[in-house]
Amino acid sequence: MNVFNAIAVVERLKKETKETRKQRYRRSRLDRYKAELIALKQEGASNAECQRWLRKNRIKVDHRTVGRWVEKNFNG
Fold first, then answer.
1. Which DSSP string do the residues of 21-57 spell out, in sequence order?
2. Is there a contact between 37 and 30 (Cβ–Cβ < 8 Å)?
3. Do 40 and 49 form a contact (C-beta atoms < 8 A)?
4. In angstroms, rounded to a whole number, what is the distance separating the alpha carbons of residues 64 and 54?
5. What domain of life does the UniProt record list for this protein's source (predicted)?
């Protein structure tokens, strides 16, 4: 007869939770245009203006996506 070991089960479940929550980084489509986007922001372009510039380069993203990307990658 097997004895239920609650401590071992909880430890295993916590480990599984930690693994599933581990953030996996995927490259953004915007990373390819990092220099251009930073230059546009330094010159005062808005996120919507950056979005329109990206659209002309066949990258379709929302202006809020541009805003989040800029927040992560641009300090200025």
1. H-------GGGGGHHHHHHHHHTT--HHHHHHHHHHT
2. yes
3. yes
4. 13
5. Bacteria
Q: In this structure, which amino acid lies at residue 21?
A: R
What value does the CA radius of gyration of the chain take, rounded to a whole number of Å? 21
Counts of helices then strands in the chain (DSSP H, E): 4, 0
Residues 6, 12: Cα–Cα separation, whole Å: 10
Spatial separation of the C-alpha atoms in residues 48 and 3, rounded to whole Å = 61
Residue 37 and residue 70 in contact, taking contact as beta carbons nearer than 8 Å: yes
For the chain, give the mean pLDDT: 89
Q: pLDDT tens-digit profile of 46-76?
A: 999 999 999 999 999 999 999 999 998 877 5
Q: Is the pTM of this model over 0.70?
A: no
